[in-house]
Each structure stands twice: as C-alpha cells, then as structure tokens.
Amino acid sequence: MNIAHVSRDVQVPPTPANSGFRTECTKPSSDDFFGVSFDDTAENNLLSHVLLEVSFVIVVTRVLRFLLKPLRQPRIVSEILGGVLVGPSVLGHNRKFAEYAFPDSANFVVRNVGAMGFMYFLFMAGVRTDMAMVWRSAKKHVYIALTGFFVPWFVVIGIGLFMRRSMSDAYGDWLSIGVLGSSTAITAFPVLYPILKELNILNSEVGRLALSSAIVVDMLGIVAIVILEATVQVESGSNDGLWCLAAVLLTVAIMYVGTRAAVSRIIRNTPEGKPVDQTYIVAILVGVLVTGFVTDFLGVAIGNGPLWLGLMIPDGPPLGTTLVERSDTIIMELLMPFSFMFIGQSTDLAAMGKAWSDLKPICAIVAIGHFTKVVTCLLSGLFIHMPVADGLALGLILTLRGQVDLLLFVHWLQKKVIQPQVYTMMVMLSVLVTAVSTPLIGILYDPTKPYMVNRRRTIQHTPPSTELGVVLKIHDEEDTAKFINFIEASNPTVSSPISIYGLHLVEIVGRGYPRLLDHEKLAQYSTYAIYETIHQAMKVYQESKSECISYKAYTAMSPKRTMFRDICELALINKATLILLPYHKNLPQNHHRIVLVSAVLANAPCSVGILLDKGHFRSNSMLAVNPTDFQAQFHQLVLLFLGGADGREALYYADRMVGNQNVRLTVVRFLAYDGEGDDEMEKKLDDGAVTWFWMKNEMNRRVNYREVEVRNGEETVATVHAMNDNTFDLWIVGRKHGINPVLLRGLEDWSENSELGVMGDYVSSLYCDAAASVLVVQQQVLREQKHWLRRMGVGVM
C-alpha cells in the first residue's frame, strides 16, 4: 500500500553564450496567490484555479453519483470516473481548455494535496483495522483468505510467463507480470469496508467473512509489496534492496514502541466515556505527515508510514472513535477529491487506445485473474458448506477494487515498473470490475435469508413446561428496570423457565469490523460493556432466580442501519421464541429506535413484543432485585383480542402471565356485527384459541372474559374508552395480522405509528388518555425463500 513520490521539476532555460549573465527581476505580488491580479496568466491565479478544479470534480462526482445510484453503483465508481473526466482523457484532452482551467501550477498543488489525502485515507483505514482479527479469525476465514490470494496470484504469474513471448518488451518484463499478479490477488480491507457499508451487508454473515479474509490478505499484501519494492531497487542496479528491508524493520520497531507508549498515556489521561482531548488529536494528525516524511526519506514509499501508524492505534473508543468522528468527513469529502483528480490526471484513454493491440494480452491476463479469484472463492465456500449463491457473492466481494489499488498503480507507474498505458488500463479495469460486481452482489446475496426459518418459533406453538427464550434489546437503566419487572410478571417457573439474552447495541465508530460479543467469553468485561451496570443488574436478578431464570449478556457493534440484524441473529442462534423491544413514542431523538423496531418486525425469525412502558413496569425497587419485592407487586392486565395470528399470540402470552398469582387478567374479544368481513379460516382459529383459553381458566377468579360486537372502528374505540378507568397496568394487543378490517374501519388513516398497529397505536396515544403501559405482540411470520436462485434449487443445502 504505497504511494509514489510527488515532486515538481523546475526547468531553467539556458542563458545565451554571447549575452553574459542575464538576470530578469519580477516584482512579486502578494495577492497573486489569491487570484487578485491584473495579469491573466494561470500562474498568477493559482488559488482560483485550484478551487475551480476541486469544485468542478466535486460537482461532477456528485452528478455521477446521482445518475449511477439507480444502477446500484458504489461511491468509489463515481469518484474515479469524476477524476478521469476532468483529466486528460476527456475534458483535459482539449489543450486550450486544459491550459486555462487546469494549468500545470494548479495541477502541482492538486497532486501534492491529493498525496496527502491518500496518506490520511490510509491512516484512517489503519485506525479502523483490528489487527487482532488476524489471530482471532476462524480457520475457514484464513482458508478462504489464503486460497483467494495465492491461487489467482500463481495463475496470473503462470499465464503471464507463458504469454510473455507474445507481449511487447515494454509490457512483458517479469516485474510487470508480478505486479499484475499481486494487484489481482490482493483484496484490501479499506476498499471493502465502505462498499459493504453502502450495500448494508457489513454485519451480515458473508460481509463478516469477507472483511475477516481481507484483513488476513492485507497482512500478506503488505509483506509482499515491501519485498517487491526491495526487488525493484535491486533490479535497477542499486544495492539498496537490503537497506530498504532494514529501514522498514527499524521504522516499524521505533513506531511500535513510541506509538504504543504515547497511546497508552493518552487513554489513561482520558476520562471514561469522554472523547480524547483535541490537543492529542491534532498531535496524531501531525504525526501522520511526519511518518510519511520519515518513510519517504528512508526510501520507503510515503504512504506506508501513515498506514503503519494507523494500525498501531487501537480501534474503537476512546481514541479510534474520536479520530474517526473528528477527521473522517474532512478527509473523505475535502481531501480525497484532490486524490481522485491526482488519479485522473495520470490517466490517458487516448494513449491507451493507441496501444490497445499490445495491451490485449495484459487485459486478458487480468480478466483471467479476477475470474480465477471468483471461482476459487466459490469453491472454497462450497468446501465450508456455503450455498452457491453466497459463495459466488463472496467471490465478487473479494474482487472489488478501490482506493488502495489506485495507490498501488500510481506507485508502480512512478517507479516505472508499469507503463502509462498499462496504468490507464488497470484503472479502468478496476472501475469496470467494481461497477459490474456491486449490483450482482445485491442480486445474489440476501442478508435476511438466514432469518427465513420454516420452523415455528412462537409462544402459541411452544409446548407447556418448556423453556422460553427471550431476546431483550436493552438501551439504558430504565429499560433494565422495566424488563426485570415484566419478566417477573411473565411467570418464570422451574417447570417453565425463561432464558434471557440481553443485547446492548453500540454504533460502530472508529472500527471497521462489526462484532457480536458474548461477555462470558471476554477476558476484560468492562472493555466492551459501556453500560456494565445494565448487565450487572440483570445478572443479580438472574442469580436471585437461578432456578427459573438464566441470563447471558451480549454487545453488538454495527452500523445503525443494520443493527436489526444483530437482534435477529442473536434470536436465531439461541432459538429464541420472543424478541422484546422497548419503545419510546413521540420523542424525535428516538427516530432511529422506531426504524429499528420496524426492521426487526419485518425480519424477525420468531415472535416480537414491543413494550411501551408508562411507568408501571419501571420501579426503583427492581434495581434492588429482591424477590420479595416482586411478589408484593400486583398487576392488572387487559387483553384486547381482535383476532388474527397476532391476537392469538398475545392471548397465549397473556395466559402465561396469568399463571403468576399476582396478575389479574381481563380479556375482551371484539366481534364484527353479524360476522361482517370475517375470514372463515381465521375465525375458526380464533374460536379454537379462545375456547382453549377459557376452558383452562374458567375456574380462575383472576381471569375475566367477555365479548363485544361492533360495527366499525368508532364503536371499537368507544368500547375501549368505556373500559379505561385507569385501573389497568398493561394493555396487551395483537399488532395487525389477521384482524377483521371491519373492527378497525375508519381508524387506519388516523394511525401514525404503523409499527404498533392501529389498536396498539391508539391505546398508547394521548387520545386514549390511558395511563397503562402497552404490549404489542406480533406472531412469527413464516416467509418463503424468495431468492430466484433458490427457487431453481441452486445453493439449497
């Protein structure tokens, strides 16, 4: 991962021999750099031209992103194409336009700032990379990484040597073939991370596998590139190859000792839960430039130092997170446009077209290399029992090209290992491979596919006297208190215990690899549990009820948009029956939580409960976790049974809760007048569930049951209002599936929170004026495998 030296050659015209020494003095203008000058030459308007170039490439890139978004193209494609468009290949091909808009003096500034942009990009990529993943990677990850690296590399080298005689001398030397092999084999973690994040598969099964494999490949790639660079120096006739290797080892050792000591001190001086002081951040960012200078001075390419520095800084809070939060936007949105202009200025499609007859063999070799990589990853995936579609998607992911590959191309170009025409071809092939692979990945891989289980995981279908698995999404201490209270009211017993899987979600900032952490397997618990008191309170409660309650704590680190997958994955792994989510209504800052709830409802592999607590399940006594306190609390529940699968699931959960001697339950069944709008099948299922419930609880004095006939939603609401005497602690309702539309006629347009369903939204609203908490239940929805490959039988295991 290197970047070439960027320098400016200043040529001084020779002085005529018969004129002696001639000196021409020009009065410098202090305002020339800022573009305020009566001289219209480009050199006197340097800043104006630089601003014009950068503004132009940003606008072009944004327009391309807008146009290519419907085609599922990632950001990197539009950025590279934007740089190429303003370079000599398209707009810069017009000499007059290039001299006026993109003069050499402005291009000099753009190239150097672009080099700095690449330095900071590599640094931030290093900060996000968790080096420990190399040692923690599972065997299958290492297996895919090694086969995906070495097989394409050997294939490209072998074919290149075989076709060497048919290639021109300028393109067919063995170093150029070695560069082709390494560039095809390497899969860069900094390239995959942003693309997978755009595709929303960063924390999916295949996404994690690809990132883990890429980290292993990156370590191999760093070693291979350093060795290749030393070989290039030996090939050039100098004896600096060993000096290059020695300089690398010495620099890394010094940086490791110094950086680790400084980082440890910074972390010690940072209060827990607080960001790192700005002074330290500035010092580290200056250190990026210093390390770039040192490695360049020692003969190692300028981009290596920032990368190594980033790798030595621990990812995540406090230091890694603060660095990313305060620097990422400036680097990606301000400095990187210079970098892509730098790439575009070195790209010349016209020159490549003229040499196309000589470039065909090289193009064929690269294409074969990428195809080999896809096939190798597919076969490796089949070996570890991956479906065909997933293995093919994994192969396409590992062929994605981006910023790191461009850096390598520039480096080898300026080292004269490859020719400018080969450089241009490699840049355009990188764009083509990424542009083709990205939409195919979206078509082939469905990250929600694992949650499409065909086995019932519902409360209704859970046999009596069996364990009930519940996943709790815990956000803060208030959630802890109400969940403890609610679980206690759910009647855990020795014969029917409850297994609780507490999950705390953390947005992944300053890290590049999403993780699902089991706290029982962590050596240092507090390192990852930001809300340690939450899990400790749940643990104390579990210990007081150890005969009927078990508890396991988890923390998931992932992007906000895909956090729902961690919840679904945890439920899937532990074969949970219910996912219980807290809900905070009418709070703008909780928009993300509402989106999260909707995503879980759409993808959950089991039933889902949404608990909107208004204080009845939130008690300070819960934090004391005294079993006698639980027995002293009395709960009055009411179930609004409107029928359907969700209503039946709510009925079965209410039946479980009424087993608690301190719970009273009122069940109100709503029926349509004269059976209007009834679905015969749903009606029969509802009748069967209600009959079972009443026969079981007919002699239970703590259970009341009645039926009400209504003609529309207005009468349904009127019935609820008549019941609302503020004596209830909890309303229980089914969400929506299978409800007779007549019962809610006229209310659908009024509902604002679809995730709660019409009735759940109403009883939790201010219009209902109900002080009770609300539990909305959705029964597991069995989904068909809709993937087109699976419909044809491909990838079915």
TrEMBL record:
<protein>
    <submittedName>
        <fullName>Uncharacterized protein</fullName>
    </submittedName>
</protein>
<keyword id="KW-0812">Transmembrane</keyword>
<dbReference type="InterPro" id="IPR057291">
    <property type="entry name" value="CHX17_2nd"/>
</dbReference>
<feature type="transmembrane region" description="Helical">
    <location>
        <begin position="113"/>
        <end position="135"/>
    </location>
</feature>
<dbReference type="InterPro" id="IPR038770">
    <property type="entry name" value="Na+/solute_symporter_sf"/>
</dbReference>
<dbReference type="Pfam" id="PF23256">
    <property type="entry name" value="CHX17_2nd"/>
</dbReference>
<feature type="transmembrane region" description="Helical">
    <location>
        <begin position="362"/>
        <end position="386"/>
    </location>
</feature>
<keyword id="KW-0813">Transport</keyword>
<dbReference type="GO" id="GO:0006885">
    <property type="term" value="P:regulation of pH"/>
</dbReference>
<comment type="similarity">
    <text>Belongs to the monovalent cation:proton antiporter 2 (CPA2) transporter (TC 2.A.37) family. CHX (TC 2.A.37.4) subfamily.</text>
</comment>
<dbReference type="GO" id="GO:0012505">
    <property type="term" value="C:endomembrane system"/>
</dbReference>
<feature type="transmembrane region" description="Helical">
    <location>
        <begin position="392"/>
        <end position="410"/>
    </location>
</feature>
<dbReference type="GO" id="GO:0006813">
    <property type="term" value="P:potassium ion transport"/>
</dbReference>
<feature type="transmembrane region" description="Helical">
    <location>
        <begin position="280"/>
        <end position="309"/>
    </location>
</feature>
<feature type="transmembrane region" description="Helical">
    <location>
        <begin position="46"/>
        <end position="64"/>
    </location>
</feature>
<feature type="transmembrane region" description="Helical">
    <location>
        <begin position="174"/>
        <end position="196"/>
    </location>
</feature>
<feature type="domain" description="Cation/H(+) antiporter C-terminal">
    <location>
        <begin position="639"/>
        <end position="780"/>
    </location>
</feature>
<dbReference type="InterPro" id="IPR050794">
    <property type="entry name" value="CPA2_transporter"/>
</dbReference>
<feature type="domain" description="Cation/H+ exchanger transmembrane">
    <location>
        <begin position="60"/>
        <end position="439"/>
    </location>
</feature>
<feature type="transmembrane region" description="Helical">
    <location>
        <begin position="422"/>
        <end position="445"/>
    </location>
</feature>
<dbReference type="Pfam" id="PF23259">
    <property type="entry name" value="CHX17_C"/>
</dbReference>
<dbReference type="Pfam" id="PF00999">
    <property type="entry name" value="Na_H_Exchanger"/>
</dbReference>
<keyword id="KW-0633">Potassium transport</keyword>
<dbReference type="GO" id="GO:0098662">
    <property type="term" value="P:inorganic cation transmembrane transport"/>
</dbReference>
<keyword id="KW-0630">Potassium</keyword>
<feature type="transmembrane region" description="Helical">
    <location>
        <begin position="208"/>
        <end position="228"/>
    </location>
</feature>
<dbReference type="InterPro" id="IPR057290">
    <property type="entry name" value="CHX17_C"/>
</dbReference>
<keyword id="KW-0472">Membrane</keyword>
<keyword id="KW-0406">Ion transport</keyword>
<dbReference type="GO" id="GO:0016020">
    <property type="term" value="C:membrane"/>
</dbReference>
<keyword id="KW-1133">Transmembrane helix</keyword>
<dbReference type="GO" id="GO:1902600">
    <property type="term" value="P:proton transmembrane transport"/>
</dbReference>
<feature type="transmembrane region" description="Helical">
    <location>
        <begin position="240"/>
        <end position="259"/>
    </location>
</feature>
<dbReference type="GO" id="GO:0015297">
    <property type="term" value="F:antiporter activity"/>
</dbReference>
<dbReference type="InterPro" id="IPR006153">
    <property type="entry name" value="Cation/H_exchanger_TM"/>
</dbReference>
<feature type="domain" description="Cation/H(+) antiporter central">
    <location>
        <begin position="537"/>
        <end position="616"/>
    </location>
</feature>
<feature type="transmembrane region" description="Helical">
    <location>
        <begin position="142"/>
        <end position="162"/>
    </location>
</feature>
<feature type="transmembrane region" description="Helical">
    <location>
        <begin position="76"/>
        <end position="93"/>
    </location>
</feature>
